[in-house]
Amino acid sequence: MKYKDFRQYFSAARIDRYLIATAYSKRKAIRLYKANLKTSQAFHPLLGVFEVVLRNRLNDILISHFSDPDWIINQKTGFMSDPSLRFTYKRTGRQKINDFLKREIHKAEKRLRKTHAPITSGKSILPDFQ
Q1: Is residue 46 part of a domain?
Q2: Rounded to whole angstroms, how far apart are CA atoms 117 and 104?
Q3: What is the pLDDT of residues 55-113, one digit of tens each?
Q4: Is 14 domain-assigned?
Q5: Chain-centre distance of CA 85, in angstroms?
Q6: 2, pLDDT greater than 50
Q7: How many structural domains are present in the chain?
Q8: For residue 120, is it within any domain?
Q9: 3-class secondary-structure state, position 68
Q10: Distance of alpha carbon 130 from the chain centroid
Q11: How confident is the model at residue 130 (pLDDT cuts 50, 70, 90)?
């Protein structure tokens, strides 16, 4: 690929750091970018495993904390709905609620319902792996 096309497709902001790192050698910048891409690809499986291990460990801790193996389902009306999650959005001054986790659990449950799968904590915690 020609450098001009490479820089256009991947953006100047992204490529310029590689150009600077290679003393403005266009050929070396492309090679360095490709090497970085290969390095990133090598870490991807490890990150996936880390995500599953971390998610499972957090789940174990929260099961113990709430004394409830179905905490993720039952806490939708517990801490996930707590008034302390309300805040004033600085840019607009409007009241908002930080209900990200609750919305994600509802999404997981909706996906499970579409496939007629039972809604369980395990499937809500790890919807992509069950």
Answers
A1: no
A2: 17
A3: 889 999 999 999 999 998 999 989 999 999 999 989 999 999 999 989 999 998 998 89
A4: no
A5: 21
A6: yes
A7: 1
A8: yes
A9: coil
A10: 18
A11: very low
Rounded Cα gap, residues 53 and 107, in angstroms: 22
- Is residue 20 in some structural domain? no
pLDDT of residue 117: 86
How many distinct helices (H) and strands (E) make up the chain? 6, 2
CA 95 to chain centre: 25
For residues 76-108, one letter each, b for 16 or more C-beta atoms within 10 angstroms of the residue's C-beta and e for the rest, the string is: beeebeeeeeeeeeeeeeeeeeebeebeebeeb
pTM over 0.70: no
Q: How far apart are CA 122 and CA 56, in angstroms?
A: 9
Q: How far apart are CA 123 and CA 70, in angstroms?
A: 11
> 111: Cβ–Cβ under 8 A, 6 or more apart, which residues?
127
What residues make up the domain containing 73? 68-130
Q: Tell me the pLDDT of the chain averaged across its residues.
A: 89
| Structure-block tokens of residue 6 | 């490479």
